[in-house]
Amino acid sequence: MGYTLGMPWKETCVMNERAIMIGEYLSGDYSVAELARRRGLSRKTVHKWIERYQADPEEGLGDWSRAPHEHPNAISEELEREILAWKAQRPLWGAPKIHSKLLARPDCPAESTVSNVLKRHGLTRRVRRRHRATPNAGPLGDLRGPNEVWGVDFKGWFRLGNGRRCDPLTISDAYSRYLLCCQGICGFTGTRTVRPLFEATFREYGLPVAIRSDNGTPFASVGLGGLSRLSVWWLQLGIQLQRIDPGHPEQNGRHERFHRTLKEAVLQPPQPNLQRQQAAFDRFCREYNEERPHEALNQHPPSCVYVPSGRDYPARLAQPEYPDAWPKRSVRSNGEIKWCGTKLYLSEALIGQWVGLAPVGNGIWDVYFMSQRLGRLNERRGRIVPIRNNNP
Fold this sequence. Notes:
This protein is 30% helix and 17% strand. The termini are far apart. The chain has 4 domains: 11-55; 77-120; 143-304, 2-Layer Sandwich (Nucleotidyltransferase, domain 5), CATH 3.30.420.10; 328-386, no CATH class. By secondary structure, it is of the alpha+beta class. The strands form 3 sheets. Strands 1, 2, 3, 4, 5 and 6 form a 6-stranded mixed beta sheet that branches. Strands 7-10-11-12-13 form a 5-stranded antiparallel beta sheet, with no helix packed on it.
């Protein structure tokens, strides 16, 4: 096969062309300048391939990687070990949280570099994107500080290792995400059980402006105003009630998202008994509040943002006060009041409490307990119509 002067190498058989050129050089029939003219190459290129062949006859004619031997953005082995150590200590933390713990280092890498280290060691997981309803910001959208709204709920129940059902009660501050209470309950979850837990939380952290909950017991009821004995107590403490719409847990989305973190951290698998499960809850609370960076807090833990409320838990409950022009009625032992000779049922949650009736006109009255409007009394019909949406 002959060659035309100045013909470039065929890209489809580069290795063969290099081998032929080296063969011609070794034959002694051609000088470097002649080989360069025959191949349409520079003499520098011909010298390069001759030198590579002489250095490594088997692999020297192959293409070498153009990647630099030392990448300017490569991290040190020490830093990589520290990233892996953080991941070993906190398996549920991703690159953003681990990166926030490295910011004090002068050689702190980019967050993407931390992510690449975790990927290279098989320590990341592919998160399946969930399609969710758009959250209702409501009063949570413009919070100005801690203790404006506390979220409360029961984390979905689960079985302990001994087979007993456990219902964790959780309370968190919506602004700072600070976890105020995480208490496992085995057995009755009514007011008699949860009120002491709220009382201990109020004594330690003070009172919030409002509490946001779902419409389940013991936070609410199907009675007038949705009041339960627990929520009546909250109102007596001067706490506003915020209830999400039925079937819309996303309206308490910050608290619901926390529950997923709680499940991943301490419920896979559950502990053998309540005592050991509560110890796991307590450890989680300390880490969640004091160590775990939160994206919404600029990768600071909640303890950097939260401060206790300035409203202390009172020694005595406030008594209802209503304008002088409002008629007042005491709720009897059967949950009824007497109005113009007629007995009207309100709620057993209000037994022993005083309610006030605000005049609307033409025999129409709005019924209040404390600041909460419960319903509208129509004298002609002789009944009280509930108020469906009573959020402030």
